[in-house]
């Protein structure tokens, strides 16, 4: 079985149903996890990006077998007016049984869209790093046009046993070695299948599977074979098959190593 370590279950459900009602979203989330299982993808980790989406992710993970979640505030979603949301995330951690919330994020830095506030993003990032350290959970890191700054903040905690994954890794080989040297994993998604993405294929070819997690970021970033369509956790198997061909190894070896990596980082246990 493959593991999708990063999907947004409620966003997939909303796109597939055009619904916003919780009950419809939950029913669709159940269907999505079953469809993934039939494609040899299980368990899944659904990712929080705001307090509201974290709450939905947690509700789904509490009730759906072999579904886990992270909670966090995406760098583009953290606003000074929402600083209390950080306290509410901690409350969710305290009131939830161990083993359901398996990480903090996605969090990090995003300096892509005009109007971003660097200082504010950095403050939210540090706050969530500290939350991860307190609760001994890994980080799910989003970084866009901000790799050096992201690494610099991580280095502030070099003596704190910080761990996690650089979600949807899109930097070069040198950056990949910097990430791995700090004990973090590389999250590999559908873009590895895109014809022009030679650098990501070079990274995986040279570094192998030891520091790689598979993820879809569904409903975003569909593999080349379904470009333009809604992505789905089942597509982790497509990504895994592509990597197996790239490395000229059995697909079972890709599934086994990347799933071992995922279980090691997130501490995934049967619920």
- Enumerate how many helices there are, as a single number: 10
Q: Structural class from helices and strands?
A: alpha/beta
- First-residue to last-residue Cα separation: 17 Å
**CATH-defined topology:** TIM Barrel
Question: Which range best describes the helical content: under 10%, 10-25%, 25-40%, 40-55%, 55-70% or over 70%?
Answer: 40-55%
How do the helices and strands follow one another from N- to C-terminus?
A: EHHEHEHEHEHEHEHEHH
Spatial strand order of the main sheet = 1-2-3-4-5-6-7-8
Name the average pLDDT.
95
- What's the CATH C level? Alpha Beta
Q: What is the CATH architecture annotation?
A: Alpha-Beta Barrel
Q: Any idea what the shape is?
A: globular
Number of strands: 8
What does this molecule look like?
This protein has helices at residues 9-17, 22-38, 51-63, 84-95, 118-134, 147-155, 173-181, 198-207, 236-247, 251-266; strands spanning 2-7, 41-46, 67-71, 101-110, 139-144, 164-166, 185-188, 212-214. Helix 1 crosses helix 2 (22-38) and helix 9 crosses helix 10. The chain is built from ten helices and eight strands. An eight-stranded parallel beta sheet has the order 1-2-3-4-5-6-7-8. The longest helix has 17 residues, at 22-38. With 271 residues, the chain is an alpha/beta fold.
Observed structural traits:
TIM Barrel, eight-stranded parallel sheet, 46% helix, 10 helices, alpha/beta, single chain, 271 residues, globular, 8 strands
SSE layout and pairing:
Blueprint: E1 2-7, H1 9-17, H2 22-38, E2 41-46, H3 51-63, E3 67-71, H4 84-95, E4 101-110, H5 118-134, E5 139-144, H6 147-155, E6 164-166, H7 173-181, E7 185-188, H8 198-207, E8 212-214, H9 236-247, H10 251-266
Helix pairs in contact: 1-2, 9-10
């Amino acid at each position: 079985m493959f593991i999708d370590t990063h999907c947004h279950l409620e966003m997939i459900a909303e796109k597939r149903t055009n619904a916003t009602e919780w009950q419809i979203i939950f029913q669709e989330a159940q269907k999505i996890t079953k469809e993934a299982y039939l494609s040899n993808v299980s368990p899944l980790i659904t990712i929080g990006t705001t307090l509201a989406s974290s709450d939905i992710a947690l509700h789904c993970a509490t009730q759906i077998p072999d579904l886990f979640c992270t909670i966090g505030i995406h760098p583009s979603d953290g606003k000074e007016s929402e600083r209390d949301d950080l306290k509410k995330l901690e409350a969710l951690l305290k009131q939830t049984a161990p083993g359901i919330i398996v990480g903090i994020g996605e969090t990090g830095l995003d300096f892509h869209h005009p109007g971003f506030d660097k200082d504010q993003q950095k403050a939210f990032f540090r706050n969530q790093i500290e939350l991860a350290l307190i609760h001994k959970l890994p980080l799910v890191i989003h970084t866009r046009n901000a790799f050096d700054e992201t690494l610099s903040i991580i280095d502030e905690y070099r003596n704190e046993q910080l761990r996690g994954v650089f979600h949807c890794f899109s930097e070069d080989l040198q950056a990949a070695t910097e990430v791995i040297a700090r004990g973090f994993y590389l999250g590999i998604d559908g873009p590895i299948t895109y014809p022009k993405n030679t650098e990501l294929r070079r990274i995986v070819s040279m570094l192998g599977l030891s520091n790689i997690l598979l993820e879809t970021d569904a409903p975003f970033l569909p593999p080349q074979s379904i470009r333009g369509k809604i992505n789905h956790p089942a597509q982790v198997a497509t990504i895994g098959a592509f990597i197996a061909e790239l490395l000229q190894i059995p697909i079972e070896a890709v599934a086994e190593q990347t799933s071992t990596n995922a279980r090691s980082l997130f501490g995934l246990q049967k619920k």
